[in-house]
Specification:
By secondary structure, the protein is an alpha+beta fold. Helices cover 33% and strands 23% of the residues. A hairpin with a 2-residue loop joins strand 10 (388-392) and strand 11. It has helices spanning 3-20, 44-52, 64-80, 103-116, 122-145, 151-167, 170-185, 200-217, 223-235, 262-265, 269-281, 292-300, 344-352, and strands spanning 22-23, 28-29, 87-90, 96-100, 317-321, 325-330, 333-338, 363-367, 371-374, 388-392, 395-397, 402-406, 412-418, 421-431, 434-441, 448-455, 462-465, 468-473, 480-483, 494-497, 500-503, 509-515, 531-538, 546-552. A nine-stranded antiparallel beta sheet has the order 12-13-14-15-24-21-20-17-18, with no helix packed on it. The protein has a six-stranded antiparallel beta sheet with strand order 11-10-16-23-22-19, with no helix packed on it. A five-stranded antiparallel beta sheet has the order 5-6-7-8-9, with no helix packed on it.
């Protein structure tokens, strides 16, 4: 099926979700539990697009409900604005994050206005236009003072170009275009825009904005940046469409398939295939309400050619990506070893910045029958989330200062340096159902060193170990600790979960739950889906390898 028609079909299937959460008295689209965020209103773009677009895949064309909800939703955005066109960013949990020209909502409202302008009565049309002009006048002022390209300023610049085209404001088009071109120029050669290093999640914001800008303007000068970004994401996407969190210094693992970014992939044959792949992977998502506007924006784009080209996820591959991360897909396995570390400048920034994580968790392992088993992402000064953690004098090391990666042969390996101590991590695929993870510490003095990894387990999952015959169901109200350090732990050391078994070396420990640092919560606390198990083993410099074997159970 042609890609745009596929997108329209997905939008039509998901429109009922927006209808079900619509609150008629306020015109707001509510979150589960009744909370509201201004970005919930972004769904109006999907409803407007469905209303005006005739297609065999779109039974919502001309449906009066689509028009009513889109109009009422836009009215609610206008109601939320202050005299300067700003809205207060209130999250569904009730936390307040200040007033701003919400970049995502203003753009999606603007496109909704463009689509529905012929269908709006005069008072509503004038009221919406006044609100949008207020917002983009404020955004234009911000763009003039922006010192560097950032994900929000890049998105705002894209929206400003579109607002300039809509309201015949050529100075807005010039200002927005200049900022977009500056953002493209400041892309890292590896294909990402730095947020203290790469972020697979936030990179999609830049890709989406530049892709929409290209669709508005056909400015081919930004295509090289978009193609580099496509190559980056093709390498750092699991075979189930989830982004690889291991290299991400801002966002930990989320069990969702992103649909932001598609406009930036559509100009390329591999990008169109990648977009189709993400759409197919997202079909099983529990909720895509927050992704409706991004999918709608992609459906608005005109990709031109419709041919598609193969992408890495469709075959086995292995690469040491720019010497910074090993990515391997072999049979049912996918693994990533990260060598993306903080530079001195970004390390200093990470101490001060709320939205920067330590780059401390360097391994993730995925299997086709289970999904992500080892990994889950980074945290902030959290030894249990570190691949290696070391105490040296009065210093605690949780992230490496240098990394050297080696791919191929019979194993993929990485050497990480922590001060005067070098630590090695080696991963070897044994067969389609077994993988070996080995660790050791080289020469150097330290008081204590541990190696390990995290496992993103969820409440309700059942575990059994060699220390306890009876299975246990994970419950967030009580911790679960298994320690094979004592002399009575026996010769067998293993723990089994749903679909996997982990054999452990002597002295190992398994602890659940640990919560990764969450900068998006008012108290930095992790939600239930951020709980991980920490698996660790003590390391002594000069001792032999300590080896874990992960096995897949049928």
């Amino acid at each position: 099926m042609q890609l745009r028609r596929l997108m329209l079909g997905r939008l039509a299937e998901s429109a009922r979700e927006a209808i079900e959460v619509f609150d008629h008295p306020t015109g707001r689209f509510l979150a589960p539990g009744g909370g509201w965020a201004v970005t919930n209103q972004d769904a109006i773009l999907a409803l407007a697009l469905l209303y005006v677009t005739e297609s065999t895949e779109n039974p919502c064309h001309g449906d009066a409900r689509m028009l009513e909800l889109a109009c009422r939703g836009g009215d609610a955005l206008r109601d939320a604005q202050d005299d300067e066109g700003r809205v207060e960013f209130v999250k569904p949990d009730g936390s307040r994050w200040g007033k701003l020209y919400m970049p995502w909502s203003m753009y999606h409202w603007l496109e909704t206005f463009r689509l529905l302008r012929p269908h709006l009565d005069d008072p509503r049309r004038a009221r919406w236009e006044n609100g949008l002009r207020l917002a983009y006048a404020g955004i234009a002022r911000q763009i003039q003072t922006a010192q560097r390209a950032h994900n929000i300023s890049t998105w705002n610049a894209m929206g400003l170009v579109r607002a300039g085209q809509t309201f015949d404001m050529s100075d807005w088009v010039r200002a927005g275009s200049a900022h977009i071109l500056a953002a493209a120029h400041h892309q890292d050669p590896d294909g990402y825009w730095s947020e203290g290093g790469p972020s697979t999640a936030y990179n999609m914001v830049y890709v989406h904005a530049l892709g929409l800008y290209y669709d508005f303007t056909r400015d081919a000068s930004i295509l090289p940046a978009l193609e580099r970004a496509l190559d980056f994401h093709l390498h750092f996407t699991y075979p189930d469409g989830r982004p690889v969190e291991t290299i991400d210094g801002r966002v930990s693992y989320r069990d969702v398939v992103p649909l932001m970014g598609l406009p930036g992939f559509l100009p390329f044959p591999r990008g169109r295939r990648y977009s189709r792949f993400l759409l197919e992977c997202s079909r099983q998502a529990k909720s895509i309400l927050n992704y409706l506007p991004h999918l709608a924006a992609a459906a608005l784009c005109s990709p031109g050619a419709v041919d598609e080209a193969p992408m890495p996820q469709e075959a086995e591959f292995a690469t040491n990506f720019r010497g910074r991360a090993i990515v391997r897909q072999a049979g049912p396995w996918f693994l990533c070893l990260s060598g993306y570390l903080h530079s001195e400048n970004s390390l200093a920034e990470s101490f001060r910045a709320r939205f920067r994580l330590d780059r401390q968790n360097y391994l993730s392992i995925w299997h086709r029958s289970v999904g992500l088993i080892i990994g889950g992402g980074n945290s902030k000064f959290h030894p249990q989330c570190s691949t290696f953690s070391m105490l040296q004098g009065r210093e605690r090391w949780v992230q490496a200062e240098a990394a050297d990666l080696s791919a191929g042969g019979d194993a993929d390996s990485a050497l990480y340096r922590y001060g005067r101590v070098a630590c090695e991590l080696r991963v070897r695929i044994l067969d389609p159902s077994a993988i070996e993870i080995s660790m050791r510490a080289g020469g150097g003095d330290c008081q204590a060193m541990r190696g390990g990894f995290t496992m993103p387990l969820r409440p309700g999952q059942r575990l059994v170990s060699s220390l306890e015959a009876a299975p246990l169901t994970l419950d967030l109200r009580q911790s679960y600790v298994q320690d094979w350090a004592s002399e009575n732990s026996g010769s067998e050391r293993w723990i089994m979960g749903e679909g996997w078994r982990l054999d452990l070396p002597p002295g190992s420990a398994f602890e659940w739950p640990h919560y990764r640092y969450n900068p998006y919560a008012p108290n930095y606390g992790g939600s239930d889906d951020m709980a991980v198990a920490a698996v660790s083993v003590p390391l002594t410099p000069g001792d032999p390898w300590r080896t874990f074997i992960l096995r897949i159970r049928e």
